[in-house]
């Protein structure tokens, strides 16, 4: 489905009535603050690289609105439209693009596990017609944060969509790192946004803290997890800084605006003639730390001064 013109203008794009010679086709899966930051960075990076209407480029933005069926339809549409390059933000749109389109350059943005999602077969040498950026990073900093803020925590509860390959792979990595530090994990799988509340409630009494992965289904109803967190006094730790203002106690994560900028840099390289399969997947080199002081007060969590000194963003 096409986005409304207002959303196109919000992204700073030309509408379909403003004909341009060359098209950069962008697909998103869900609307989320992190996605908006990524798109903002993408726009900034493309402008800097000269991919503008003044240079006869038009950017078309499509949203799957959280529907995997629509994501497949968008892939088919792009295959028929034949843009100069395709940008796919999120695994649920990157996978059908990679499966459907073999003869157009594809640049994915912010995928947690491109290998696990079978979008590429090698991070250094992706091969084929696809490459991109990843938000994949070690969980050590987040697990250390849990130990700092909730030192008695032993059991971590995880709510996520196990049917989503990206989420499954990410949670498996988290569990492995958590186990190495002595944590046990308990899971509750969801299939749709309305499952978040009962899934979270099922972990009450089993989990000392919640871990919220970068899962689109969970993100779409994060407030349900926050509700259970506050009612049951179980802090939420997340891998997305955007979750902090929504109720997570703390989160470690990448700067999604910068991921957008770095994605744009790859798009520019492709448009200048480089083959996507010969461009290494861009991985994050550092993480930021976010903290919600208001939630800490509501949960009765005291943050040591040494911790506060490392926080980049604090919600009060």
Describe, in short, the structure shown:
With 316 residues, this protein is α/β, with parallel strands linked by helices.
What does this structure look like?
The protein has 316 residues and is an alpha/beta fold. It folds into 2 domains: 154 residues, Response regulator (Rossmann fold, 3-Layer(aba) Sandwich), CATH 3.40.50; 142 residues, 3-Layer(aba) Sandwich (Rossmann fold). The chain is 38% helix and 19% strand. It is built from 12 helices and 12 strands. The strands form 2 sheets. Strands 7-6-8-9-10-11-12 form a 7-stranded mixed beta sheet, sandwiched between helices. A 5-stranded parallel beta sheet has the order 2-1-3-4-5, with helices on both faces. Strand 3, helix 4 and strand 4 form a beta-alpha-beta unit. Helix 2 packs parallel to helix 10 and helix 3 packs across helix 4. The longest helix has 16 residues. The protein is elongated and about 60 Å long. The two termini are 39 Å apart. 47% of the residues are buried.
Shape: elongated
CATH-level-2 architecture of the largest domain: 3-Layer(aba) Sandwich
Average per-residue pLDDT, rounded, comes to 90
In DSSP terms (H or I, runs of 4 or more residues), the helix count works out at 12
Structural class: alpha/beta
- Report the end-to-end length measured between terminal Cα atoms: 39 Å
Question: How is the main sheet built?
Answer: 7 strands, mixed
The run of helices and strands is HEHEHEHEEHEHEHEHHEEHEHHE
Which bin fits the share of residues in helices? 25-40%
Low-confidence stretches: 1-10, 13-17
CATH topology call of the largest domain:
Rossmann fold
Biggest β-sheet: strands ordered side by side in the sheet: 7-6-8-9-10-11-12
């Amino acid at each position: 489905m096409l986005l409304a013109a207002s959303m196109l203008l919000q992204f700073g794009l030309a509408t379909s009535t403003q004909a341009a010679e060359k098209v950069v086709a962008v697909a998103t899966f869900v609307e989320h603050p992190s996605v908006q930051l990524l798109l903002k960075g993408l726009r900034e990076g493309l402008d800097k690289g000269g991919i503008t209407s003044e240079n006869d480029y038009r950017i078309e933005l499509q949203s799957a609105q959280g529907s995997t069926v629509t994501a497949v339809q968008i892939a088919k549409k792009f295959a028929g439209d034949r843009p100069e390059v395709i940008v796919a933000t999120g695994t649920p749109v990157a996978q059908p693009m990679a499966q459907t389109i073999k003869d157009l350059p594809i640049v994915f943005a912010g995928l947690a596990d491109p290998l696990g999602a079978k979008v590429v077969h090698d991070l250094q040498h992706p091969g084929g017609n696809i490459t991109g950026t990843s938000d994949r990073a070690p969980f050590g900093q987040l697990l250390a944060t849990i130990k700092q803020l909730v030192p008695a925590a032993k059991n971590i509860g995880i709510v996520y969509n196990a049917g989503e390959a990206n989420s499954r792979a990410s949670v498996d990595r988290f569990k492995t790192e958590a186990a190495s530090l002595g944590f046990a994990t308990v899971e509750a799988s969801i299939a749709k946004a309305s499952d978040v509340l009962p899934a979270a409630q099922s972990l009450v009494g089993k989990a000392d803290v919640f871990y919220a992965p970068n899962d689109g289904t969970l993100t779409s109803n994060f407030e349900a997890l926050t509700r259970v967190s506050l009612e049951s006094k179980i802090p939420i730790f997340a891998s997305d800084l955007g979750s902090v203002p929504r109720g997570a106690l703390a989160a470690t994560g990448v700067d999604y605006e910068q991921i957008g900028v770095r994605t744009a840099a790859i798009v520019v390289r492709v448009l200048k003639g480089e083959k996507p399969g010969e461009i290494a997947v861009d991985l994050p080199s550092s993480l930021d730390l976010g903290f919600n002081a208001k939630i800490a007060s509501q949960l009765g969590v005291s943050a040591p001064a040494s911790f506060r000194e490392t926080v980049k963003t604090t919600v009060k």
